[in-house]
Amino acid sequence: MHEERCLSKPGIPLRFPHAVGNPTIRSGMTTLVVVRKGDSVAIAADSLTTFGDTKLAALHDRTFDKIVRHRETYIGLCGSAAHQLVFQSLLAKHPDLDFSDKAAIFETFRTLHPILKEQHYLNPKEEEDDPYESTQITALIANANGIFGVFSMREVFEYTQFWAAGSGREFALGAMQARYGQLRSAEAVARVGVEIGATFDKNSALPMTVYTMPLLRA
User: How far apart are CA 163 and CA 208, in angstroms?
Assistant: First the structure.
């Protein structure tokens, strides 16, 4: 497994992916991507936190990484920055959580939902006509088995090439679609996605963080 923090601006120190997140509100204002190509996968995210009209850039944020690690799985979170603190607490208290495949990820989020409500005071309500309670989390997941997305009603998708989430997702998806066939590695495609998201989305910014790992089955 290769693990890298790709810092696109000089002078910003390396941070550990387990570091405590900033408790201000992101509200999906991010560019987060996952990519599968050849014999590897990659997950990448920008580093900007926004709340209202105020930006908290990586230069001023001691823990700007939006990706957390659980054993051999990387999880990128969109939404409230409180999600990162909550997930770090959950992962520490429940080390047996399984993110290995689509079915396992669904069961993990189904198991976590009542815990989020009872222990972390999750507000599960979005729209009056929603068929299920919301977990209020959008996440992209990468591990040696593939790349996955999880959404607020605990829907889980497994992707064959790439996907993006957050406010910069449309820019990132377009960039990765255009360059996927031209670039040689999952990491290179992920970099392009976040770079273009950060270029055109006002709520995303460099530097980015990138993590890569080999696939068990290409």
Answer: 16
Q: Render pLDDT for 176-208 as a digit per residue (tens, 0 to 9).
A: 999 999 999 999 999 999 999 999 999 999 999
Q: Which two tokens stand for residue 161?
A: 């090439």
How is residue 210 written in tokens?
């990138």
- Give the β-pairing of 73-78 and 67-70: antiparallel
- Rounded CA-CA distance 140/94 in Å is 20
Q: Report the run of H or E that residue 89 belongs to, with start and end.
A: helix 82-93
Cα(76)–Cα(196) distance, rounded to whole angstroms?
18
Query: Which residues make Cβ contacts (< 8 Å) with residue 119, sequence separation at least 6?
Result: none
Give pTM, 2 decimals.
0.86
Q: Confirm if 125 and 21 have CB atoms less than 8 A apart.
A: no
State how far the Cα of 26 lies from the Cα of 17, in Å rounded to an integer. Answer: 18
Q: Which two tokens stand for residue 47?
A: 């580093």
Closest C-alpha to 165, from 152, 182, 179, 146: 152
* 193 vs 76: CA distance, rounded Å: 14
